[in-house]
Design a protein that fits this description.
Number of helices: 11
Distance between the termini: 61 Å
Order of helices and strands: HHHHHHHHHHH
Shape: flat
Helix content: over 70%
Structural class: mainly alpha
Length: 315
């Protein structure tokens, strides 16, 4: 079955017709209920911010306005579907901060759309191959295309989750050393802000960069307690959140800060040891698979084969 086959052409035409009908239904004003802002907007009076002579309209701006008007409802529906699949804008913004990415929510949505288009293209190629070479049903081809789009969106979200996990593991490795440096700086007579600034200036990594951002917030007018609590909110490491809360409480109550930092460093080292033990236990169980299924059968074969060879010679 080739691309010029009537069934393939009928499937493509049916796909175009189905997409057109879906767009018509979604763009129907009787189906799409306007929100409160859209209902109130025609009754509001707005003064012009400047002279129209100073900002002449061009064909490019007119084209963008027409495209925005035509594709606005479709874009809103696509963004709504993405939010239902991967979370709302607030959750996505927090995940972006936890991953250390300075991108906005809109840019990440655009990246998700690009991944979805790439998955749809791959699914379309596979669907055409399945229909033309294997003689599969066109409905199966549509399912493959839709599955490719969904896999593209989910893969982009999983890449973000993997980035958060890698950054959390890197911070967990850096945290005991950074806590020791802070304890030494505070014990030497420096304040908490100066100690964090020294660590951020003399060290490199994900955690010193977050301390630099915390110092910048304090310099901008935020209190030390709020900045430390914000440090725990925008990082994926739970121990760092407890560290920020503990230091903030110590500063508010006047507790010796060096002792608190040493205790935090000791707790971080104990937590890293427990994590290493858990990883070693999981790896030990995983190592049993090649031992049982590959090495042990070879040992049995080498042990039994000489006896079988002797028995065969005697026979």
């Amino acid at each position: 079955m080739t691309l010029g086959h009537p069934l393939v052409l009928a499937a493509l035409l049916g796909l175009c017709l189905g997409i057109g009908l879906v767009l018509v239904v979604l763009g129907n004003p009787w189906v799409r209920r306007p929100d409160l802002a859209a209902r109130v907007d025609p009754y509001l009076r707005r003064g012009s911010g400047g002279s129209a002579l100073l900002a002449p309209r061009t064909d490019d701006s007119t084209t963008r306005a027409v495209v925005r008007t035509l594709l606005g409802p479709v874009t809103a529906n696509v963004v709504g579907i993405l939010e239902r699949l991967t979370g709302n804008a607030v959750q996505l913004e927090r995940r972006l901060r936890m991953a250390g990415r300075r991108a906005t929510v809109e840019s990440f949505r655009i990246e998700q759309v690009i991944w979805a288009i790439g998955g749809g293209v791959v699914g379309l190629v596979l669907a055409l191959l399945a229909v033309t070479v294997r003689g599969a049903s066109p409905v199966l081809g549509l399912v493959i295309v839709a599955l490719g789009v969904v896999i593209g969106v989910v893969a982009c979200d999983q890449m973000l989750s993997m980035a958060i996990s890698r950054r959390a593991a890197r911070m967990a490795r850096e945290f005991p050393t950074v806590a020791d440096l802070l304890a030494l700086a505070v014990a030497a007579g420096e304040g908490p802000v100066a100690a964090m600034e020294r660590v951020a200036r003399t060290s490199s990594g994900a955690l010193p960069a977050e301390f630099a951002a915390t110092v910048a917030e304090i310099r901008a007018g935020s209190t030390v307690s709020e900045a430390l609590i914000g440090l725990g909110d925008r990082t994926p490491l739970d121990a760092l959140g407890r560290f920020g809360e503990g230091v903030a409480v110590a500063i508010e109550r006047g507790t010796p800060l060096a002792d608190v930092l040493r205790a935090q460093a000791q707790d971080a080292r104990e937590a890293s040891k427990r994590d290493l033990m858990e990883i070693a236990g999981r790896r030990e169980i995983a190592m049993m698979v090649p031992v049982v299924f590959f090495i042990l059968p070879l040992v049995i074969v080498f042990a039994i084969f000489p006896g079988l060879a002797v028995l065969r010679i005697s026979l």
